[in-house]
Amino acid sequence: xxYNQSLIMNVRCKIWFEKDxxxxxxxxxxxxxxxxxxxxxxxxxxxxxxxxxxxxWGKIKATEQxxxxxxxxxxxxxxxxxxxxxxxxxxxxxxxxxxYTDKMTRAxxxxxxxxxxxxxx
Length: 121
Fold this sequence. Notes:
Blueprint: E1 16-19, E2 22-26, H1 27-39, H2 42-48, H3 53-67, E3 72-75, E4 83-86, H4 88-117
Antiparallel strand pairs: 1-2, 3-4
């Protein structure tokens, strides 16, 4: 069966990593960490993503606990103000997550095209 050209669809999928039924890492956490990396502040990253500092901190701590790694190096305020930077482990996690999700997305799109857009199906 070939679908009408006006009905051509795209495939979408959400990928997250779990450990013991708890979310270990997902797209929102990747976005949060990348915003911290870019802005140098968890508070600024949370604001940019439209979430409270408390919610952002909770997601970071939950991920750290599930994975058993530290994600942020945090400095408290003072004369120069506070800030946050990503640990090497956080940068590696982001890199591997991106690599994995990109590869899975390409494979998923290819298979979707094969099954749903093939002229002989």
